[in-house]
Design brief:
By secondary structure, this protein is of the alpha/beta class. The protein contains nine helices and 19 strands. The chain has one domain: FAD/NAD(P)-binding domain, CATH 3.50.50.60. The strands form four sheets. The chain has an eight-stranded mixed sheet with strand order 5-7-6-14-15-16-13-17. The radius of gyration is 21 Å and the shape is elongated.
Length: 324
């Protein structure tokens, strides 16, 4: 049985683990939980999906959707969605959301597989051993003798870990958009009848009310994404400065007089894929010369949950064929 290390417990890593369950899998992640950027933040009785916001019903990840339905991890919601707030273009949109927040999706997929795992474990070194297999190292531990190492982390981080074993082309460098996210809760109700939308402001690219996801919320709660252009220009801005800038804009548009009783800011440096590896190279992964190290992730195919899952699915198909 092949001994496989998966570095990264986001949707791509979970897809690989799910589709290679007949192997001996060990999954590593620097975070304390599975999901990567599929993140749900809780604070007292407040709850926010501030990473991935929803799964589109028109997604191209058939296996993922069927798995989520079979495991009863999602619910369907029909929301009023503003495709362009400035032009007041409103549609009814059917989406899937996690039953207990979006992070409940990867968390429950992971728990359903019962595979060996090491969280709070950032891999800082990969080294080939005398058996021509690979050993992994964290600051405190070492993990020995993996036949395959599959990296499902942001491209630049994966490249740094594997540069001694993988030939990288400077012609094929995927690119990410960074995005600041703000989480806001108000005791005052807003006048907005829509649940989510795009282009609230030149610098606020996306907004979504959290109450339709979490009916138990007593306050009106919102998640805002600043535009990638704004974030790129202000990567070093403090949270306080960002909140002082974005909050008055949001309050003015929504006609809110009171201050939020909760506000939290998070910066996603690798928020979503802007330029995919596949669009540049027509390839679905990067591999070492000995075909024992593979790099993949959402940066292969696109920014959606479905794209991340399908990146793992494509690589798992190839690895299963290699094993025949």
């Amino acid at each position: 049985m092949e001994n496989i290390a998966i570095i990264g417990a986001g949707m791509t890593g979970l897809s690989l683990a799910y589709n290679l369950q007949n192997k001996k899998i060990t999954i590593f992640d620097k975070s304390w939980r599975a999901g990567g950027r599929v993140s749900t933040r809780k604070h007292n009785d407040l709850i926010f999906d501030h990473g991935a916001h929803y799964l589109s019903q028109k997604n191209n990840a058939k296996q993922l959707t069927e798995l989520l339905i079979n495991l009863n991890l999602i619910k369907e919601k029909e929301i009023l969605f503003c495709t362009n707030f400035k032009n007041n273009e409103i549609i009814k949109k059917k989406i899937y959301v996690g039953n207990n927040g979006m992070n409940s999706i990867p968390r429950n997929i992971f728990e359903s597989m019962k595979i060996n795992s090491h969280f709070n474990s950032k891999i800082i070194k990969i080294a080939i051993n005398k058996n021509n297999n690979y050993d992994l190292y964290t600051d405190d531990n070492e993990f020995k003798n993996f036949d395959l190492v599959l990296l499902c982390i942001p491209y630049l981080q994966a490249k740094e870990l594997t540069k001694d074993y993988v030939n990288f082309s400077e012609d094929y460098i995927p690119d990410y958009d960074p995005i600041y996210t703000l989480m806001l809760s108000f005791r005052e109700k807003t006048h907005l009848k829509i649940d989510a939308g795009l282009n609230l402001h030149d610098d606020i690219s996306f907004f979504m009310r959290q109450n339709f996801k979490f009916p138990e919320l007593k306050s009106e709660s919102w998640v805002l994404n600043m535009s990638s252009e704004y974030t790129e220009k202000n990567l070093d801005i403090s949270n306080i400065e960002l909140e002082k800038y974005a909050l008055p804009i949001f309050k003015k548009i929504l006609k809110i007089n009171n201050k939020p009783f909760f506000i939290k800011t998070h910066r996603w440096l690798y928020a979503q894929t802007k330029t995919t590896y596949n669009s540049l190279s027509k390839k679905n992964w990067i591999n070492s010369k000995d075909n024992k190290i593979f790099l993949t992730g959402d940066w292969i195919l696109g920014k959606s949950l479905g794209d991340a899952w399908n990146a793992g699915l494509k690589l798992s198909h190839y690895l299963n064929i290699l094993d025949i």
